[in-house]
Each structure stands twice: as C-alpha cells, then as structure tokens.
Design brief:
Distance between the termini: 99 Å
CATH superfamily of the largest domain: Intergrase catalytic core
Strand order of the largest sheet: 1-2-3
Number of helices: 16
Structural class: mainly alpha
Helix content: 55-70%
Largest sheet: 3 strands, antiparallel
Strand content: under 5%
C-alpha cells in the first residue's frame, strides 16, 4: 500500500474526527471530494486508488481535476473552491507526515482559489410565496406534508439540511411555539412560529403519528427526506404555482431561495440586520448585507433623498405667516 492511502485514512480519523471534531456534514463533504478525485485519477491514469502515491496527485493532476469539475460536471466556482479547500487541508496534514514530498505538496498548496461573481440573491415576492403555498393538493396526504414543509421553510428560513434533520421532538406547538435545530457549525437555535404555521404543523403531526425521534417530514419508507427529495418537492410545486403566478418560473425556487425569501420578508417588515442574522443562524452581520443589496425599495428610498444631477439644491425657507394664513382658508 502506498503512502497516500494511510495518510488519507489518518486525515479522516485523526485530523477531522479526533482533533477537529468535524461535523458529519463536513466529513461527508470531504469524503465526496476525495471520492471524486480518486475516481478522476483512476480514469485518467489507470492506477487503482489503493495504489496511488503522492507523486500521482501532483499540482498538474489537481488542476486537471478542478477543470474537470467545472467543464464536465458543471459545478459552480464556489463548489470548485470548496473541493480545493478539502484538498489543501489534506496536503497540509500530509506535509508534516511526509516531508520527503514537501516540494510536491507546496505546489499543490500554491493552487489558488478562483474568484467568483457575487450574484444578487434570488427570493420570492409575496404573490409568488402565496402561489407556491397554494400549489400542493391538500386532499392528499403527501400534499398536506408538502405544504407543511414549504410553510415551515419560508417562515423559518431553515437550511435544507436543517429541514431534513428535523425530528418531531424539535417542534414545540404550545405556549412559545418554536422549532429547534442544530445548524451549520453545530450552532443550536430556536425559531418562533406564526399561529398559521403552528396550526398546519399540529394538523400534520396529528395525522402522522410517531415517536419523538421520528422525522418530522418522512419519505415513503418512513425515513427522513433527502435533500434531493426536498429540492424535487419544491420544483414540482413551483411548476404548478407558475400557472397562477408565471413570474415564479424565472426564480427556479430551491430551499435556499425559500431561505432568502424568509430573510427578505423580515427585512421588508423592518426587522433589523442583527435579528435576521440570529433568525437564520448566520455567523455575523456581513452575510446579511446581501439582502440590503437585493432590496430595490431600500435603494429607491435612498434615491429619493438625493438631489438629482443638474438640479441646484435649494434651502428651506418658511412660508410667510400671512400667506400661510390665506392659503389655509
């Protein structure tokens, strides 16, 4: 067995699991990255993954893998950079264990992340939200489940991973109704629920009996819905909603679009940035600034306060008291 295989195994068991106490989501993401990388190297070199050595995964090979992700697998630049970050993490770990490969490792670590464009966030307007929530067929059990899921996603702004991991015990529908979840970075938070959401969830829980550890939104076999299943549910109902609200088609709704929609609803109703950050489970206020950028109404209000170019700004002069009296008659 080559040096790469035991190093990769130690990276997952010692560095990620034992030393960093990485979350299951992080470990799964890194696992997927290296599975893709090893399959790519095997396809291009013919060498079985267990027989690969560091010399077989040099900077040229890693760069080719990143290009393969973008051109053939059609991943975004952000995903490409995330894969590169996982590779960098492994090679930094390997640098201490295998100084004989220091030059090769340094060249891999020197591969830069690619700059990406910051797009304006996509969110649903109130008519589009209403159309989406009206799309599920409430005469069917799956339709009632889907409406409860959509309503909870839009009202709470939960990430898709947070939605799929919800258990029945995570929902409190009594006084101080809320949903609790463990989010990104193992941060725990509780989000209050509107009375409408409480009523829909209560009806769903009464219809779908189960234990406290059972998934809140189970699939056909009683297991939690997968993230792909949630994406398919949203896409299917968005297609139906487009009949009543055609503009929703261009938005291509996903769970993340629903999360953005929740944030914009809060923003439009005057909720301050720090509260929105807490509501969504963001690390800081910088991430919330994208919602200010996306809100055209805020920009229009700012524009209204600015004197147009080419117009001389005047100074306020109070009306003459006698004229004011006459004009008030």
């Amino acid at each position: 067995m080559s040096a790469l295989a035991p190093t990769l195994e130690a990276f997952f068991t010692q560095r990620l699991a034992a030393q960093r106490n990485a979350s299951p989501h992080t470990i799964a993401s890194y696992r997927d990255c290296f599975r893709l990388l090893l399959h790519y190297v095997q396809a291009t070199t013919g060498i079985e993954p267990a027989k690969l050595d560091f010399a077989d995964i040099d900077a040229k090979v890693v760069a080719g893998f990143l290009d393969h992700l973008e051109t053939e697998r059609n991943v975004t630049i952000s995903t490409r950079n995330a894969r590169l970050a996982a590779i960098h993490s492994l090679f930094r770990f390997a640098a201490v264990r295998h100084p004989e490969h220091a030059q090769l490792i340094a060249r891999v670590l020197d591969i830069p992340t690619k700059r990406t464009r910051k797009d304006t966030v996509t969110f649903l307007t109130r008519p589009e939200i209403d159309a989406l929530l009206a799309a599920p067929d409430l005469s069917a059990r799956i339709g009632r489940r889907d409406r409860a899921l959509l309503l909870l996603a839009i009202q709470t702004g939960l990430r898709v991973s947070e939605l799929t991991n919800l258990r029945r015990s995570d929902v409190a529908l009594g006084t101080g109704a809320h949903v609790a979840c463990t989010g990104k970075g193992r941060k725990q938070r509780a989000t209050p629920l509107f009375p409408e959401t409480v009523a829909v969830l209560k009806a769903w829980l009464d219809e779908q009996p189960g234990g406290s550890a059972d998934p809140l939104f189970p699939g056909p076999q009683g297991r939690p819905l997968t993230q792909d299943a949630v994406t398919a549910i949203i896409s299917r109902h968005a297609l139906s909603a487009a009949k009543a609200c055609p503009s929703i088609t261009a938005k291509r709704p996903t769970a993340h679009v629903l999360r953005h929609s929740c944030a914009m609803e809060l923003f439009h109703n005057g909720v301050d940035a720090s509260t929105i950050a807490l509501w969504l489970g963001h690390e800081g206020l910088r991430t919330v600034s994208v919602y200010v950028t996306a809100d055209m109404a805020t920009k229009e209000r700012a524009l209204a306060r600015i004197t147009p170019i080419g117009v001389t700004s005047g100074r306020y002069h109070p009306n003459d008291t006698l004229l004011a009296f006459l004009e008030a008659l």
